[in-house]
């Protein structure tokens, strides 16, 4: 079967990471992307590539996976988080807490770097190609299918210095957080909310006003933008015979919404399962399962805090010398988190309601097989 092209639906980080892994092993790969360009839905969104779930640096992990890291990034070690009363808390870590990156079709984005690597390895990428069915080996990476969280706000140009700021206030971002990221004269300001979606315009306005008051937010040529996230731990990350990766599978951090590392890791694992003939579900559970379960418990607890709870949490962080070390402990598997996981699953229910079908040897990209609980 080594001459059979493997088809991948979706040219996001998960799909391209899978394509890169397969191409490096000498397999022919065709990537189908429904949009006209890579990263179409992000449009120069600034995001964070988290660096706390492993002791090893995130960039080193990606390089070991064989994934390109020649994208523009800003190592973020220091920032400021505000509580609902406007008190500032300094965030510091010895190593980068996260790497700020740009998403979308621009020349220095993470998406473009992955696309460039894939094409350089001989991957055929077909844009404006929306796949409905596949009949050979394939991987599905078509993005989120429901909105468990939305991040809504603006992209803009600015004269502000590089940096990151956040506000934990349910009046700005219910059960979530508002954030401001600036890198190289570009900025993103958003309310990341886990509920209250119908009032998103009100929360975005409050977010912009709060950052203007607290840090002197300057927006030049602001352009509205929004995105969605879908979180869950599936019983199986397969659709029929095919692996499902990235946000389509629900692989995203349930607490803060950081998902790029999990997406690319799942893409590599899916490709390895095809190359080795191994069990993809076993691979992702070993690599991602414990982290996702810890993140779900963290999300359930965070959702109970409210503004006074956020202030208490920020006080705890203030007493620690290294924010990366603190977050790493929150994501480490433990007996307490294992015991809390069933309660967290009942409290946090994904909006994803997958279709199931009784097709024999299903080839549909849109459907999934089997029972799954919704995290």
Description of the molecule:
This protein is of the alpha/beta class and about 375 residues long. It has 2 domains: about 5-45 and about 55-70 and about 105-145 and about 230-345, 3-Layer(bba) Sandwich (FAD/NAD(P)-binding domain), CATH 3.50.50; about 150-230, no CATH class. Helix content is about 35%, strand content about 20%. A hairpin with a 2-residue loop joins strand 15 and strand 16 (about 240-245). The longest helix is centred in the last third of the chain and has 39 residues, at about 280-320. The two termini are about 35 Å apart.
Instruction: Write the H/E string, N to C.
Output: EHEEHEEEEHEEEEEEHEEEHHHHH
Q: Could you give me the name of the CATH homologous superfamily of the largest domain?
A: FAD/NAD(P)-binding domain
Structural class: alpha/beta
Biggest sheet, in brief? 7 strands, mixed
Our count of domains comes out at 2
Helix content: 25-40%
Number of helices: 9
Strand count: 16
Assembly state (oligomeric):
single chain
């Amino acid at each position: 079967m080594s001459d059979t092209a493997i088809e991948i639906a979706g040219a996001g980080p998960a799909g391209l990471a899978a394509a890169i892994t397969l191409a490096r092993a000498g397999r022919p790969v065709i990537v189908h992307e429904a949009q006209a360009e890579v990263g179409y839905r992000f449009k120069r969104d600034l995001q964070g590539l988290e660096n706390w779930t492993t002791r090893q640096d995130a960039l080193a992990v990606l390089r070991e996976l064989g994934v390109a890291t020649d994208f523009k990034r800003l190592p973020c070690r220091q920032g400021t988080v505000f509580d609902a009363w406007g008190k500032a808390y300094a965030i510091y870590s010895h190593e980068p807490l996260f790497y700020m990156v740009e998403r979308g079709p621009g020349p220095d984005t993470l998406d473009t770097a992955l696309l460039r690597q894939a094409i350089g390895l001989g991957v055929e990428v077909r844009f404006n190609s929306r796949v409905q069915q596949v009949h050979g080996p394939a991987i599905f990476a078509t993005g989120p299918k429901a909105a468990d969280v939305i991040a809504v706000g603006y992209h803009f140009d600015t004269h502000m210095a590089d940096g990151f700021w956040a506000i934990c206030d349910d009046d700005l971002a219910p059960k979530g957080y508002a954030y401001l990221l600036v890198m190289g004269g570009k900025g993103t300001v958003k309310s990341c909310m886990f509920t209250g979606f119908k009032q998103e315009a009100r929360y975005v306005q409050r977010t912009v006003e709060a950052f203007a008051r607290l840090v002197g937010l300057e927006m030049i040529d602001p352009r509205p933008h929004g995105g969605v996230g879908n979180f869950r731990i599936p019983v199986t990350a397969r659709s029929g015979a095919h692996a499902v990766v990235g946000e389509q599978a629900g692989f995203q951090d349930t607490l803060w919404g950081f998902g790029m590392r999990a997406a690319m890791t799942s893409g590599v694992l899916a490709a390895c399962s095809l190359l080795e003939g191994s069990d993809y579900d076993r691979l992702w559970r070993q690599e991602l399962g414990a982290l996702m379960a810890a993140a779900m418990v963290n999300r359930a607890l965070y959702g109970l805090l409210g503004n006074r709870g956020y202030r208490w949490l920020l006080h705890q962080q203030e007493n620690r010398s290294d924010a990366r070390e603190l977050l790493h402990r929150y994501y480490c598997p433990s007996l307490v988190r294992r015991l809390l996981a069933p309660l967290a699953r009942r409290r946090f229910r994904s909006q994803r309601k997958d279709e199931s079908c009784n097709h024999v040897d299903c080839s549909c990209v849109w459907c999934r097989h089997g029972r799954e609980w919704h995290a």
